[in-house]
Amino acid sequence: DSGVTQTPKHLITATGQRVTLRCSPRSGDLSVYWYQQSLDQGLQFLIQYYNGEERAKGNILERFSAQQFPDLHSELNLSSLELGDSALYFCASSFTGTSGTGELFFGEGSRLTVL
Amino acid sequence: AQTVTQSQPEMSVQEAETVTLSCTYDTSENNYYLFWYKQPPSRQMILVIRQEAYKQQNATENRFSVNFQKAAKSFSLKISDSQLGDTAMYFCAFMKRGYNNNDMRFGAGTRLTVKP
Hints:
With 115 residues, chain A is mainly β. Chain A is 0% helix and 50% strand. Chain A is globular and about 40 Å long. The N and C termini of chain A lie far apart (31 Å). In chain B, 0% of the residues lie in helices and 53% in strands. Chain B is built from no helices and twelve strands. The interface between A and B is medium-sized, with 25 and 23 residues.
């Protein structure tokens, strides 16, 4: 158990819909990362938050948005869903800083299926 | 931008044998981490081993060890005495140290199959 909690674990929805994925980081971790993994692909970095502020942005579509709340949990919002958005979405957390280990601790992922 | 390249999409090894997975990376940074993550069929991402760039000594974790060549920007993973449970996708990853833009970048992965 990594200590990172993601909900829901599975989600099936239709094209054009909007979904929200939720992530609770490990206790004490200030940074949250979101990654997308399409079938048999590598992990594509979407976005990073540190203590509520956006710190890094990857190839995140304009239809996608995220935020980190004061209690440090994060949400990834996916709107106007397309078939190609079907993927496993990972949240990961870390203690970001020079004294940290750099390691990311991953949740079990949220599997999104768009029909 | 940092890039990570894994040139071996698939590999196989006999149980109890040794296998080496390759990884190269491109960066202008001097202070960073390198990682190998394992993703078994359960899809959970599991840290196998980590290396800090300032350390010349290669990291080892039980049957797993790395060959870190900083000048060549190479970071290979050696698995000794392979076990059936080692069957998984293996991802090499890079992360810059610091507070800003230190997201973790992954290679495309190597699918390793351990055969009985």
